[in-house]
C-alpha cells in the first residue's frame, strides 16, 4: 500500500512538472508523461480535457530566438499544416507561450504508441513481411512529400512513429526543406548547422551531406531509408560512425572510394585530405555487408537505395514498384500533394528574422 501511495505521489509530481514545463495550465491539455526528446524540443503525452483524447505535444523552445530556429519552426509548421497523408504525422492544434527567449511553440499531434527504434531494439520478431510493411509505409509517405519537392532530411528510426497495429507515420519535420535551393550561402550556413547539430543522425546521413557536396536533393531521404531498411534486417545500425570523419571512413571502407565525378564535387578541403589519407578502397560485397541476413530481393532493393552517387539512387516511386514489396502493396489511392506548401516553403528561405517571427505568429493564431 505504501508503495502504491509513493508511486501515485511520484506520478502526480511528474505530471505537475510537465504542467509547469509545458505551461499547460491555461490550455485545455493536461500533461500525462514525458515521452521523447528531440534535437529542438521535448514531447509529452497529454489529455485533451474537452474530448478526453490522448495527444502528443511537442514543445519547441526559443522557437523565435534566432532566424535559423524561427525558419526551422516555420518549416515544420508549414509541412504539418498543409500535408495530409496516412503515413505522415497529423497536426491537431498549435499554440504559443512566452518563454525566457521569445516564443515557445507547441505542436499538438495525434499520439502514436512508439517508434521504429523501440521495435528494432526490442525482442519483437521482424520477419520479411513486417519489414516490407514498414518500408512500404515509409516510401509511401516519402513519395507524397517528394512530390511537393520537400526533403525530410532527418529520417531515422526514432522519427518513424508506429502503433501496435504496425501503422507507421513519419514525424519530425524540423529539418524538412524544399530541395531546390537558390541561395548557396544560406545552404552553407545551414549545412554547417546541420553538421554540428545532428550528430545523433550520423548513421543515416547521406554521402552528399557527409562529404560536403552542395547539391542536395530529395534522395538524401532514399539513402536514409535504405540504411533504416538494412537496420531492420540486421537489428543494428548499418554504418555506425561516431563523428563525421569516422562515418566517412566507414562508408569508404564498405562502399569503396567514391567516383571521380563525386570527388570533384566535394567542396571541403578537409574532406579531400581525409579521402587521400584513407587511400584507395574496393567496395565490399553487399552480401557481406548485410551479414548474409537479407533475402536476394531485400539485398537488391537496399543496393538500389544505398548508392554512394546520389544520381544513381532509385526514387520513392521506383522503390515502391520493386518486387520486394509485392506482398504488402495495396491498390493505391494516392493523394495529390497540395501545391500551397511548395509556395510557402519557398518563401521561408528569403524571409528576414522579423518577417519569420511575424509569419510564425500569424500561422499560430490562424490555426483552427
Ligand atoms: P521529435 O522532436 O519530433 O523528433 O520527437 C522526439 C521523440 O518524441 C520521437 O523520437 C518520438 O519517440 C516522440 N514523439 C514525437 N511525436 C510523437 C507522437 N505524435 N506520438 C508519440 N510519440 C511522439
Automatic annotation (TrEMBL):
Alphabetized GO MF terms: ATP binding; protein serine/threonine kinase activity
Coiled-coil boundaries: none
InterPro entries linked: Kinase-like_dom_sf, MAPK, Prot_kinase_dom, Protein_kinase_ATP_BS, Ser/Thr_kinase_AS
Positions that bind ATP: 59
Gene3D superfamilies: Phosphorylase Kinase, domain 1 (3.30.200.20), Transferase(Phosphotransferase) domain 1 (1.10.510.10)
Family: Belongs to the protein kinase superfamily.
Record protein name field: Protein kinase domain-containing protein
Record-linked SMART domains: S_TKc
Domain Protein kinase positions: 29-325
Keyword Coiled coil recorded: no
Pfam families membership: Pkinase
Signal peptide annotation: none
UniProt keyword annotations, A-Z: ATP-binding, Kinase, Nucleotide-binding, Serine/threonine-protein kinase, Transferase
Highest taxon listed in the record's lineage: Eukaryota
Amino acid at each position: 500500500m505504501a508503495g502504491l501511495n509513493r508511486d501515485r505521489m511520484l506520478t502526480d509530481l511528474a505530471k505537475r512538472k510537465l504542467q509547469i514545463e509545458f505551461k499547460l495550465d491555461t490550455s485545455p491539455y493536461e500533461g500525462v508523461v514525458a515521452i521523447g526528446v528531440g534535437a529542438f524540443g521535448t514531447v509529452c503525452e497529454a489529455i485533451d480535457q474537452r474530448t478526453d483524447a490522448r495527444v502528443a505535444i511537442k514543445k519547441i523552445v526559443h522557437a523565435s530566438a534566432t532566424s535559423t530556429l524561427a525558419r526551422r519552426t516555420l518549416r515544420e509548421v508549414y509541412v504539418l499544416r498543409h500535408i495530409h497523408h496516412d503515413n505522415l504525422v497529423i497536426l491537431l492544434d498549435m499554440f504559443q507561450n512566452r518563454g525566457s527567449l521569445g516564443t515557445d511553440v507547441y505542436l499538438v499531434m495525434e499520439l502514436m504508441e512508439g517508434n521504429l527504434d523501440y521495435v528494432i531494439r526490442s525482442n519483437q520478431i521482424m520477419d520479411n513481411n513486417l519489414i516490407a510493411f514498414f518500408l512500404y509505409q515509409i516510401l509511401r509517405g516519402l513519395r507524397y512529400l517528394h512530390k511537393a519537392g520537400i526533403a525530410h532530411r532527418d529520417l531515422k528510426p526514432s522519427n518513424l512513429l508506429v502503433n501496435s497495429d504496425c501503422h507507421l507515420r513519419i514525424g519530425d519535420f524540423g529539418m524538412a526543406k524544399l530541395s531546390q535551393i537558390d541561395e548557396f550561402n544560406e545552404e552553407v550556413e545551414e549545412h554547417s548547422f546541420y553538421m554540428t547539430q545532428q550528430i545523433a543522425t550520423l548513421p543515416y546521413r547521406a554521402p552528399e551531406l557527409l562529404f560536403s557536396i552542395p547539391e542536395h536533393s530529395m534522395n538524401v531521404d532514399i539513402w536514409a531509408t535504405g540504411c533504416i531498411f538494412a537496420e531492420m534486417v540486421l537489428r543494428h545500425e548499418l554504418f555506425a560512425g561516431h563523428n563525421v570523419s569516422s562515418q566517412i571512413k566507414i562508408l569508404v571502407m564498405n562502399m569503396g572510394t567514391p567516383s571521380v565525378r563525386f570527388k570533384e564535387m566535394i567542396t571541403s578541403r578537409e574532406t579531400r585530405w581525409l579521402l587521400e589519407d584513407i587511400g584507395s578502397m574496393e567496395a565490399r560485397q553487399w552480401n557481406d555487408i548485410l551479414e548474409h541476413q537479407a533475402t536476394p530481393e531485400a539485398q537488391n532493393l537496399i543496393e538500389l537505395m544505398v548508392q554512394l552517387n546520389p544520381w544513381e539512387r532509385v526514387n520513392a516511386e521506383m522503390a515502391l514498384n520493386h518486387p520486394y514489396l509485392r506482398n504488402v502493396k495495396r491498390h493505391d489511392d494516392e493523394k495529390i500533394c497540395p501545391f500551397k506548401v511548395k509556395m510557402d516553403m519557398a518563401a521561408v528561405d528569403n524571409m528576414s528574422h522579423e518577417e519569420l517571427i511575424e509569419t510564425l505568429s500569424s500561422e499560430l493564431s490562424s490555426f483552427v
